[in-house]
Each structure stands twice: as C-alpha cells, then as structure tokens.
# Entry
Amino acid sequence: MKFKNIEPRFIKAYNLLMEKFGLFPFTYNMAEKVLKDNYENVSEVLSKLVEAGLLEKTAKKEDKRKKYYKIKPLTSEKMEKVGKDKLISLLKQGADLIRTQVDYKVLLLFLFFKAISDKYLLKVNELKKEFKDLDEEDIYILANEDILELYDVEGKKLYVWHEVANKPEDFINALNKIVEMNKEKLAGLEELIKRTGLPALFENENKHIVKHLINLFSGVDFSETPYDILGDAYEWTLNYFAPTKAKEGEVYTPIEVSKLIAHLVEPKDDEVILDPACGSGSMLIEQYRFVGENPNIILVGQERNDVTAVLAKLNFILHGINLKDAKVFIGDSLLNPKFESFIKEFKGTGKADKVVANPPWNQDGYDENTLKSNKKYKHIYKYGFPNKNSADWAWVQLINYYTEKKAGIVLDSGALFRGGKEKTIRKRFVEDDLIEAIVLLPEKIFYNAQAPGIILVLNKNKSGDRKGKILFINASNEYIKHSEVRRLNKLSDENIEKIAKAYKEFKDIPGFCKVVDIEEIKKNDYNLNVPLYVAPIEEGEEVDLKEVYEELNKLHNEYLEKFEVVKGYLEEINKII
# Structure
C-alpha cells in the first residue's frame, strides 16, 4: 500500500491508531479518545485516512447504523523484504511480545502461515507471467500443487495471510481450512492450533498480543526469502525457547550436535534416513543439509508427542523439503514402530540406510513385560530387556535393528558403564562388533541436562582395519561458551571438524582419542566409559626458569636487607639491657 500524498500529521494519527487497535475494529468514539490530545478535528483525520486507503469503514451485522473503522493491512507493495538478520530480529520482537503469557508455538504458526502465503503468491505471479492465457482460478489450481493448497476450488476462495490479517474472526477459520485442504501433509495441525490456545487468544485479555503479532508479520515479505533462512528462523525460535521449555520436560537437540552426527554417519544421496524419536525434526534436517544442494534422500521420523510431530512437519516445509520425501509418524517407536511399511516402499527390507536419534534419556517404564507388546520384540530386543528404570539400551537395540549401515545415537553417559541387565546387552553389542566409535561430549550443552552426553556410533559394515576395535573420543573440552544462554556451552564449527576428523582418521591422538581393541574392553568388564580409555592431558603452566630465578633472587635480597635491619634492632636492644 502506498500513501497517497498524505500529510505527515495524518501518518502520525495512523500510527497512533495502529498502536492502540492494530487490526481490530474500533468506533469513532474509541478513535476520538486516542486522538483528541493531538487533533482537534478527529472526523477530518479519519476521513483523510479512509481517503488514503489506510482505513476502511465497516459496520457490524447486528447494527449497520453504527459505523466501525479498521486499519487496512499493509500489502506486498509496502512490505519489507527480509534476510536472516532482519527475520531473527522480527522473531525476537515476537518473542518479547509473547513472553510467558502465550504459548511460543503461536509464533511458529504465524511464521509458517505468513511464509507459505508469501511463497504461494510469488508462485501465482510467476505462473501468471508464464501462462498468460489462463484465468486466475486455473493459476491458483496450478499454484496449489507447488507448496500447499491455499485455494479452495469448491468454495472459490483464497486462504492467504493478507486476505484474513485484518479480519481476526476469519484468521482461525483460514488456518483450519488450510489444514482441511492439506489433510495428509498437515494432519495434526488442527490439534496444535487448539493446544496453543490461539482461538481463545482472539477473545481473552491477551488479544492485544495477537494483534501486535499480526501487525509485526504483516510488515514483512517472505516471498523471496530462501527456504534455508526460513528454516533457520524456525529452528532459532525452537532454540530460543528451549531453555525455558526444558524445565517443563520438552527436549530439544542443539543444532551443532545434529551437525556432528551428520559428519559421523555421513548421509548420502539415494539413502533413507530414519529418526525414531524425531522431536521437531531438526536432526533429520541436518542430515538432509549435509548431503548438499537438492539432495535426493528420504527422511522418515516417528514422534510420540502428536503436537511435536506437527512441528516437525512445519519445520520440513519451511526448509523447502517436499513432504513427499519426508514422513513423520505419531506413536511410540519402542512399542509400535509405524515407519517400517513406509520404508519398504523404498527399501524392500523396511530398514533405513542410516538412523540418527536423541531418544529420551533414562526413560522409565520399558521393562520386559512392556516391550513384549511390540510384535517384533523377539527380533528387535534379541540382546535382552533393560530394567524398567532406563530404556537406553532398548532404544539402541531398536535403532540397531532398523539400521542397514550406520547409526548415530545420543545417550546419557551412564549407558556406557551401568551394570545389571544393561551390562548384559552392552556386552553382546561389543562381542558382535557393532560399536565403531563413542564420543564423550562436553557438559552443559543440552538444555535439559547438565551432565555430558555421548554419541554412540554403530556400524554394520566396518572396514577391515576397524574390525574388532572401538574408537574412543574424549571431546569433553571441545566447546565454547554459549552466546545466548550463560550457563550453557556449545560446539563450535572448529570443535565439530576436529571430532569428525578424528573419527575419519581412526587413530590415536594423546589426550583426545584412542583406538581400543575389544579384548581390552573385555578385560575392563565391558565398561565403555570414555575417560577409562582416554583422558585429556592436563596442560601444565609453562615456566620461564630465568624469570623464576630473577624473582627468587629479588626475594632473597629483600630478605637479607630486612634481616640486617632486624639484626640491628636486636643489637641496640641488647646494649640497653
């Protein structure tokens, strides 16, 4: 929208009304209360704003005689193109608006709706130029096939952001209609909308927050923002709220850990990558990005929490990943792995090439009686059942069963040395030569755990020089301080490269990594605790002997001087006596 030579004083009035009412309707009397301190003739102000196209007049159905005004939303002519820095700044503003009063997932919903709307309209414009003879509806139908269906063919109505941004009463209806038109791709999104409490936010005391969020997103244009940036922004939002949500039990894998796992399992084109505890999908996305530009891989995830599974779908879309190549199932993978039949469409065995996961640590309730409810328990949990206090080695067995080549698993370090039933399972993994490497991570890099985690690398196709051996990497000192969360650490790109290089070279580096023969591990009673095999070398302080000598000599001379002074005092005292 362009201002039609409107005077600055009227633009100021527009901003005052926008700040107060946003996109919600208001009466003349309401406007007068806002403007009376700055303007004598409120009627003139409103008329000028209507004339300039900045306000629209409307009337409520129940009382057509009573006029209402609405701020008109900004169109793409006025919207600002955004890059990564601008987008993160916008999301920080949104996060500040939300604080603890509104579920942070509302911010993700708004980012998703605005981004796909802008991308859709960009596609419409491109199609109009390419197919000049087609009418508008045919163009919309073609655009529906590109990202998501946003045009309702039966109702002949377009459901995009700018069509409903100034009609809060239609906002939720539009989101629900988009879910209905994209049932398979967005299954579960309607539940996310309900759980965030978004419908009620338009009515309760927090409606001003929604109003400001709509205003915030209406001012930017995502049509030409690369999917990588949109995806990074989505991940940034998850990451930003992770420290707070961790206290409520939500688990989020830091992106740098997902990147490190990608370096360890090395996903390639034409592979199926599985994450049976996929959360918001970030680990799968990092495998996708690792392959390179336009990768040809299939991503498969399963997540027990239905709302989190929907977040993963939105994450894929905003990263530009076609949902034909990325599938997320909802359910408990330990008891009911739903992904096998889908994988069979690409791999006859129903098993993935690579598996990556950060399953819940020390999950309780998965003992023998529970795990036997899995129809394939005899094949999956063939090495034994863990006790009910920790399902760590149940997850390792599940992942091992569905892995054809390699797997990277994040676990609590206690899984490496705890006794009892876990030790029995661990022993069999060692003896069957399934473990290729173990990486001890630094402490304080996970939002919900202070203790250091580990990455267990399984490899069913070890090369000859690696058979019968396990590489232990002690990366406990490989970290930098987190830039945004003071109490946390994080892996830098340099840290990741160092660890990945050590894994690829598979040789001893004093104080950092060591290749250990399985026979030595047997002598240690199958204890896989990394510091038992490799501990960081304590760096001693460098000593300059010349400097130390000079300092000692100086102190010695000072001592002699003081000694002579004291000696003189004593001699004088003795004379007096």
